[in-house]
Amino acid sequence: MIRKNPSGDLPVIDESAYIDKTAIICGKVVIHANVFVGPYAVIRADEVDAQGDMDPVVIGANSNIQDGVVIHSKSGAAVTIGTNTSIAHRSIVHGPCSVGDRVFIGFNSVLFNCRVGDGCVVRHNAVVDGCDLPPEFYVPSTTRIGPSTDLDSIRRVTPQASEFSEDVIRANVDLVRGYKRLQNEF
């Protein structure tokens, strides 16, 4: 469902993107080319700051927002998802937040008030809250990263983890094409 927010903003969605019919895209949201938005995902840009303004939620080209993902923002702060990035099933990305290019965010992970650098991998059930992850960092499953985390203890992304992330992107870009073809059948 595509809908306005209370400020009257409507999403801007590239015609090549695939948005599942059960997903909700609300307000000041920009979705670029070849993006996949899966079933029951919610991308909502509707809160304003003290001056009545809001920044958009932007999803970069060739990225995928998988089933049940929630993307929202506090007080009109920006949320940016880079290009060729995967936000896996049931994750929460809550702004202010910036996720770089070629990033993989695993199942049930939570990002809040953070920056995740290009090429990072955040595995399943991890939390990144209130800190900036430099490019190419690998966050193991169930790890919590916060302002007091010693980032020197976080390892770098391996070639295998990068290849996994690239495979997920390829699979989801293929899904966009397949689902776009099917839209004309129903």
Question: How would you characterize this protein structure?
Answer:
Helix content is 13%, strand content 33%. The protein is mainly beta and 186 residues long. The protein has a single domain, classed as Hexapeptide repeat proteins (UDP N-Acetylglucosamine Acyltransferase, domain 1, 3 Solenoid). Strands 1, 2, 4, 5, 7, 8, 10, 11, 13, 15, 17, 18 and 20 form a 13-stranded parallel beta sheet that branches. The model has no long low-confidence stretch (mean pLDDT 95). One of its GO terms (molecular function) is transferase activity. Belongs to the gamma-class carbonic anhydrase family. It comes from Thiocapsa marina 5811. This is Transferase hexapeptide repeat containing protein. Pfam families: Hexapep (PF00132).
